[in-house]
Task: structure prediction
Amino acid sequence: SLRLHGTEEDCSDRTSSQCIRFRAQFTAFLQCFCTSEVQILPVCSDRIVLIMGARSQLWSIAKMSVTGGVIGVTISDRYVTVVAIKGHSMHPTMTATDSALRGDIVLAEKACLDQYKFSRGDVILFKCPSNHKEVFVKRLIGLPGEWIQLPASSEIIKVPQGHCWVEGDNAARSWDSRSFGPIPLGLINGRVTHIIWPPSKIGRVERKWPEDRIPPF
Amino acid sequence: KIIPIEPSSPSAAAMSRFVRRLAGIPWRQIAGEASSVGLLMAQGLCAVHVVSEHVLGVAFPRGPSMLPALNMAGDVLLTDKVSPRRGWVGPGDVVLLLSPEDPRKIVAKRVLGMEGDEVTYPVDAGNSDATKTVVVPQGHIWVQGDNIYSSNDSRQFGPVPYGLVKGKMSYRIWPPSRIGSIDSKE
Result:
C-alpha cells in the first residue's frame, strides 16, 4: 500500500488554515483520478504517498473489469464486433487455417441490423438455420423479392419476402443457400466490413458481384 | 513584476472585467464533473442494454393472435433472454421471435413443436376441419398463435429457425388482475 504525506510550509502548526485548505484541495484533485478513497495524513515529510488498502485495490480492479465488460458487450452488440473466420467457404476473400490464431480476423458492423437494409454483394454473418449456435459468413446474392438463377442448373428461384439468398465465394467448399435455401433476414448477425488480420490482408472487404453470374431481376 | 495595463475606455474596461470573470470560473472542475457524469450515464445505459438484451427484458405484446392467454393490448410481460440462448425452450412456451416475413417485426407465439416433432395443425380454421401433419426440420420450431382464427404463424410461413427466437415470455406483471406466470399448455 502507498501513503501520502502532505508537504507543508509550516509543519509546526498542522492545524493552520492554510495547511487544512491545501490538504482539502489536493485530496479533491487526486480523488478525480482514484477509484478508492484518498486520504492525506497531516504528517511532516518530504515525500508524497497515497493510502490504499489492499482489499479496496482488488475491489477497484473488479469494478473496472465489470464496467469494461459491460461496455464491451454493448459495443459488440450494437456497433462493431470482431470475428475469427473458421472454414473455407469464402476463400480467397477470407481464409481460415486450423489454428484460430492464424485464421483471418474480420471486423463486422451491426448498424445494418437497425433497418435490415443490405445490398447485393455484401458479406454477412448469420446464424445457421439448422443450428442456432453456429455462425456462418457468406456473400449476399439475392435480396427479398428478387428472382435469381441457380448457378448449376437453369432454375430460377424467387427469394421470399423477409429472406435472402447467400452463397460463399468458394463455391466448391461452401454449404450455403444452394443446400439450405433462402434464410430469414432475422438470422443475420452483422455485415463484414474490414479484415484486420493478417497484416498482409488488412483492408476493406468490398461489395463484389461474382463473375459469370447473371444479376437478379 | 506584472504591471497592470490601465483600460483606455469604458468598453475596454467592461471587456477586461468580463475576461477576468471568465478566467475566474473553474473550467477544469466543470469539465471534470461533466465528463464524469457523462461517463456514469454511458455506463448506466450500457448496463441497461446488457441486462435487457441478455438477462431479462420487458415486452408489450399487441394483437389478437394470442387470445385468451395474452390481451389484445395493455399487457406487460417479463421476457427471459437466457433460456433461448441455452436451448431451454420447449413445446407450450410462449416465445418472442423475429418475424420471418419482416425482421423488423417482433411477434409473440406459442411453440407447438421442436425439431423432429410431428405437428398436426388445422389448415383452414373456421372454414373446414381439415388438418395436416408435418415433421419439423432440424434446427427449426413450429409456432402457432393460441387464437388460430386470427393468427399469422407457421401455418402460413412454415417452421422457423430456432435462431429467430429472441426471448421466452414467462411472467406477466401488468394488469394487476392477471399478474402471474403465463400458462404453458401443450
Q: What stands out?
A: Chain B has two domains: 12-54, 60-181. The interface with chain A takes residues 32, 36, 42-43, 45-47, 49-50, 53-54, 97-104, 137-140, 160-165 of chain B (CB under 8 Å).
